[in-house]
Specification:
The complex is a heterodimer.
Chain A lengths: L2 E2 H17 L3 H13 L3 H20 L9 E9 L4 E2 L2 H15 L25 E7 L4 E9 L1 H4 L3 E6 L4 H16 L7 E7 L3 H12 L11 H15 L14 E8 L6 E9 L5 E7 L4 E3 L5 H5 L1
Parallel strand pairs in A: 1-3, 2-4, 7-8
Antiparallel strand pairs in A: 2-5, 5-10, 6-9, 7-9, 10-11
Chain B lengths: L2 E5 L4 H5 L6 E11 L1 H9 L13 E4 L3 E5 L2 E6 L12 H7 L4 E4 L5 H10 L2 E5 L11 E6 L2 H8 L2 E15 L6 H19 L13
Parallel strand pairs in B: 1-2, 2-3, 3-6, 6-7
Antiparallel strand pairs in B: 2-9, 4-5, 7-9, 8-9
Helix pairs in contact in B: 3-4
The chains are: A alpha/beta, B alpha/beta.
Amino acid sequence: MAISEQLLKEVSLNLLKLASMYLPDEVVEALKKARDNETEPIAIKQLDAILINIGLSKDKKVAICQDTGLPLFFINLGTGVRLDGDPIRAFWDAAKIATKEVPLRQNCIHPITFKNLGTNTGWGIPAVHWEIVPESDYMDITAATKGFGSEIHTATAWVLTSEDIRKAAMRAVLDVVEDTMGEACPPVIVSLGIGGTSDVSTYNAKKGLFRVPFGADHPDPMIAEMEREMLQAVNKTSLGPMGFGGNNYALALNIEIAGTHTSIVPITVTFQCWADRYASARIYNDGRVEYISHPDALAYFK
Amino acid sequence: MATYHLQVPLKDEEIRKLRIGDIVFFTGEAFTTRSKFQRYIFDQGHEFPFSLKGRNLLIHCGPVVIKEGGKWKAVSFGPTTSIRFEKWGPKSIKNWNLKCIIGKATMGESTQQAMKEYGCIHVSMIGVTSNLGLSQIEIKDVFLKDEMGSIEAPWLVQCTDYGPFLVDIDTNGDNYYDTMDEIFKQNKKKAFEYLNIPEDFDYTKLY
């Protein structure tokens, strides 16, 4: 038994389509909750417009935002999984087909020559991040279409271990939010990668944006408590939806950690806009597929 | 906070009476612009590809478009981050006689200054919602598509009560974001207080 390249391509294509057109129910619920607890008139207008927009894109099967981002894949690969064919080709083919069929904006360019192949592929994009999971016979795939209005506000602070790290992390987040204001299209998801080398903290921050399921706590209660506190604190800034005032600047704040150097802790802060575009599925070695973020995925495409 | 339904070409006196926080809708022609087009015109000295007569509403946007039955149609069309175009903001306002720029968030000081001098405003779409506007805009034409590509090329669109937009820079030189900066500074204290962190707490910056 093995997962075929064809199956991987089909599932990846469905995930990219779902991610770009259809926000997961948990995200929509969080936005509705934000709407219900909002008191600022301008914020209520912003959230109403956002919720109508989400419904329109899902019903009409069109991209939620004209910046359809760059495609990304996060893979948790069980050691018991056998792959038949070229998985990277499957992801690239999925991005090419999604670009035509959704359609997605042709965003991916060469960083120096600016050449655009028109397919949202090329020069390492879609980026595919692999993690190996022992003793499992399935692969989890999360596809994300990452818009750059929020991406460009990613920043890393370096905090000495002589500092109070909790206070410093909070300070770093508020400083980055102050630089970002409404430009990341709030209500955002804020994610922090704390610890590791620079690459690891950035990767962890990015991974934290697409935690499945949406809104889940970190498994370590100490870190989950930090997440709750920092989310409250960020919302106390009253920047609100789109940064024009209100109670809801962030829908979630996630933290991922990694071991770090004895002298210093990198804290990477990154954002996802309210259009929290991701979709995930589990493919078993025997070819069974479960759509995790969008359980009605197959009915949606009929 | 008042609501206005404006006709393009936008009139100077109408634009000058708008204030930050007002809500506006537009009917008439508008064109999209991104940096490749501004570089093409201002840095490379090319001629503007169509008549600007009566066209004084600009949209910072790179749409998703399809061709259906030989006709262009937008499938996702929303204003994008305006600060990216700051370098050409004043020149665009002055040379193109703009009365309003539709974008996202804010622009810089030099554009703000030009808006005051030439009577132009900046507005952001409420919610930054790319599909809400689809029934309110219709593509009329595109220019330089081969040179620029479909994202960066200027698209000429017909707007029908396109909005709502929030005025965030007005002709007084007032910027909604400056007021939010002040609110943020006040509330940053509240956030620290909530976490029992002294308001002046900072950590050693290495560089």
